[in-house]
Design goal:
The protein is built from seven helices and ten strands. It is globular and about 65 Å long. Strands 3-4-8-6-9-2-1-10 form an eight-stranded antiparallel beta sheet. Strands 5-7 form a two-stranded antiparallel ribbon. By secondary structure, it is α+β, with helices and mostly antiparallel strands. Helix content is about 40%, strand content about 15%.
Length: about 280
């Protein structure tokens, strides 16, 4: 009897220990890192998402190293976004073109879509274009905060139609890229019939592949955000969203209102004084 009781108590204690350990893990996952960006225009506080760990950890690393201190919001476009993080922007003379600076590495894309999207206040990673960056890898240091604009329901519906219609074209271009040697060869030989037959074949293949994809629709959360606070929906699933503003959205608005030059650089510098992990 005593032996059975001992076994029962031991099993119960093990169960309690396991539960406590699991709860501790869940709490760590639930806790999101807060970062305060102190700027010459005021303070902006952002939270970093745990679901984008590579971007989160990199941003924390650079903040602790003081990378962002003295950098500028070098690209500001009203009703679109404010961008910063270029190391070459430190003490940059007026009129200097900025935006090409980096830290010598990129970060693999971490799309958590449609959960995280480009609503107003979204913290996202800048990157080079698809032509040189087909994997959509992020800049190792440059980021932007979305300001965007408010859309109505009909505009969002038109965007959905455009996205669905453009899928065939996108798939076709991808297929054509795989046949470029064949295409160049037929062009060189002036084989118009061969080119036409290949084109029709690839169009049919693209249509078939597109038909297998689920129809694109904005989620209710996206529709609500884009028709109330606003954002930049055309950037969704193209750039990694790794956090969002939780305090200081008025400062973001203040920055997007500044006067800029032809290169979208503010005429009066808007500087990051310090980035502090809380």
């Amino acid at each position: 009897m005593k032996k059975k009781a001992f076994i029962f108590i031991t099993i119960s204690l093990l169960g309690l220990i396991a539960c406590k350990k699991e709860n501790k893990t869940e709490n760590n996952m639930d806790k999101e890192t807060l970062v305060k960006i102190e700027t010459s225009a005021g303070n902006i506080k952002v939270k970093l998402y745990n679901e984008t760990p590579k971007h989160r950890d990199n941003f924390i690393k650079l903040a602790k190293e003081g990378h962002y201190e003295g950098t500028l919001f070098h690209r500001v476009i009203k009703d679109f976004m404010i961008q910063a993080g270029d190391p070459e922007s430190k003490n940059a003379p007026k009129g200097k073109m900025l935006g090409a600076g980096d830290v010598g590495y990129t970060i693999p894309a971490e799309f958590v879509y449609p959960k995280y999207f480009h609503k107003k206040g979204a913290l996202s990673a800048a990157r080079q274009g698809d032509n040189v960056n087909p994997k959509k890898e992020s800049s190792g240091c440059q980021f932007y905060i979305v300001t965007g604009k408010v859309y109505n329901d009909s505009t969002l519906l038109n965007m959905e139609r455009h996205i669905n219609d453009s899928r065939v074209e996108s798939i076709f271009n991808g297929l054509a890229q795989k046949h470029m040697k064949e295409i160049y060869k037929m062009r060189k030989a002036n084989d118009e019939n061969g080119l036409y037959e290949l084109q029709e074949k690839l169009i049919a293949q693209a249509q078939e592949e597109a038909a297998k994809l689920p129809e694109f629709r904005f989620t209710p959360e996206q529709v609500k955000a884009y028709t109330t606070v606003g954002g930049t929906p055309h950037l969704d699933n193209e750039y990694t969203v790794f956090g969002e503003v939780v305090e200081g959205l008025d400062v973001v608005d203040k920055i997007q209102q500044v006067k800029t030059d032809r290169s979208d650089r503010p005429e009066e510098d808007v500087k990051i004084i310090k980035v502090e992990v809380e």
